[in-house]
Amino acid sequence: MGQHESVATSLASAVREEIGASLARVDAELARRYPGDPGTRQPVHTVYVPGDVFTAGTVRSWGDQAVAALDEHAPDAASLAAVLDLSGDLAGPVYARVRAKLEREPIEDLRIDFEDGYGPRPDAEEDAAAARAARLVADAYADGTAPPYMGIRMKCMEAAVRDRGIRTLDIFLTGLMEAGGLPGGLVLTLPKVTYAEQVTAMARLCAEFEKARGLEPGRIGFEIQIETTQSILGPDGRATVARMIDAAEGRATGLHYGTFDYSASCGVSAAYQSMDHPAADHAKAVMQVAAAGTGVRLSDGSTNVLPVGPTSQVHDAWRLHHRLVRRSLARAYYQGWDMHPGHLPTRYAAVYAFYREGLEQAAARLAAYVGRAGGDVMDEPATAKALSGYLLRGVDCGAVDGDEVTGLTGLHRADLDRLAGRPVTP
Q1: Is the Cβ–Cβ distance between 337 and 299 less than 8 Å?
Q2: 194 and 248 together in one domain
Q3: Residues 212 and 318 in one domain
Q4: Residue 327 structural domain
Q5: Which residues pair with 239 in a beta bridge?
Q6: Do both 270 and 368 map to the same domain?
Q7: Are residues 128 and 203 in the same domain?
Q8: What pTM does this model have?
Q9: What angle do CA 119, 167, 158 make, to 5 degrees?
């Protein structure tokens, strides 16, 4: 006997069919607007380097400077633990992994800056710098020295600099194509967005470039920097950032909070412009809700307090940076900006401690859920999704090893991807 024959019902099948038909458009909209996590690795930070300063040796130089800062100001696990108040159990593993990371992959995401960090230049000079950046990026991917993600921040879509920004983008992308094609880790950043129409214009630029070079439609995506009040609240009183994601037509890859521009636009005085100011928290909360489920990643901003000078001053800056990074992680902002090589030790120390200190508890909870539900069927899928996502981020950034997670949970990468609602990694 079929399952539908064993119970009595009162509604005709036509009712279900009519309801399904009436919601078909909503189903399609949900699938389009909220595809979920893309399943790719998210970098833990972005480093900005002015277009005229970036060289083939920049990534290695940042790593070497970060290691030198450790050697001078925290030469062993105990000294770093004392500065950052790390527990004894965490200090050794975190310190070892931080040093190894700085030697192996000091920067996860690098943006060659042609906006505020570069400023206005003669057209010929910026043309040459954009072409040079393309050559260096192509070479870095070819010889294996590139960080996982790399690209440029162009000038914005405001009238005064629009043409210059478009030309720089065109030169850079054309240079990459001439050198062999767009790298898989390419990231582009559109700054100082105020109206959704500016995002629409950027999406059109990407589409036109794809047509001109015979690329697959949708190949080029971009980040939107949220650093103006208009990008959070429009003149009609409605939240704007969700409209910007929609205006990108599926090309938006991230929302990056701009600490200092946004704070200044709110009238916050310079001494109080910080990632933890209430104005910043409000903006980021709006960003977080707007991006939820869309697959668009979030990034916090930066601190401009640099770890330079005598050891006591470096330690103060490290404590501040470490606290701010930990605060962002707890609020589900898993990425931020780093302004100086001296920020790298505390970026990775904060990130690694965050994932290592919760590893055993998260693994035990996930294993218990899987065991209780009998495998793939979860009685608390939202909890399993969060736990799996936490463990995957820890593995991706190097805080924990895949074998550690498997040993504690009995689950492999594909299992975690499935539970996290991500595309399954082969």
Answers
A1: yes
A2: yes
A3: yes
A4: 45-356
A5: 233
A6: no
A7: yes
A8: 0.92
A9: 60
Amino acid 400: pLDDT: 96
Q: In angstroms, rounded to a whole number, what is the distance separating the alpha carbons of residues 75 and 95?
A: 10
Strand partners, 112: 49, 152
Residue among 277, 330, 271 at smallest CA distance from 304: 271
Instruction: Please indicate, yes or no, whether residues 373 and 230 belong to a single structural domain of this protein.
Output: no
3-state SS of the chain is CCHHHCCCCCCCHHHHHHHHHHCHHHHHHHHHHCCCCCCCCCCCEEEEEECCCCCCCHHHHHHHHHHHHHHHHCCCHHHHHHHHCCCHHHHHHHHHHHHHHHHHCCCCEEEEECCCCCCCCCHHHHHHHHHHHHHHHHHHHHHCCCCCEEEEECCCCCCCCHHHHHHHHHHHHHHHHHCCCCCCCEEEEECCCCCHHHHHHHHHHHHHHHHHHCCCCCCCCEEEEECCHHHCECCCCCECHHHHHHHCCCCEEEEEECHHHHHHHCCCCHHHCCCCCHHHHHHHHHHHHHHCCCCCEEECCCCCCCCCCCHHHHHHHHHHHHHHHHHHHHCCCCCEEECCHHHHHHHHHHHHHHHHHCHHHHHHHHHHHHHHHCCCCCCCHHHHHHHHHHHHHHHHHCCCCHHHHHHHHCCCHHHHHHHCCCCCCC
Matching residue, tokens 């057209």: 123
Residue carrying structure tokens 């439609």: 217
Q: Classify residue 40: in a domain, yes or no.
A: no
CA–CA separation, 85 and 78 (whole Å):
10
Mean pLDDT by 10 residues, the chain (426 residues): 70 94 96 91 97 96 98 96 92 96 97 95 97 98 96 97 98 98 97 96 98 97 96 90 95 96 95 95 96 96 95 98 97 96 98 96 91 55 90 95 95 92 76
**Cα dihedral 133/137/140/142 (nearest 10):** -130
Taking the C-alpha atoms of residue 146 and residue 164, their distance in angstroms, rounded to an integer, is 26
Q: Are residues 27 and 133 in the same domain?
A: no
Q: Which of 284, 172, 164, 178 is nearest to 222 (CA)?
A: 172
Question: Given 336, 356, 376, which residue is the final one in a domain?
Answer: 356
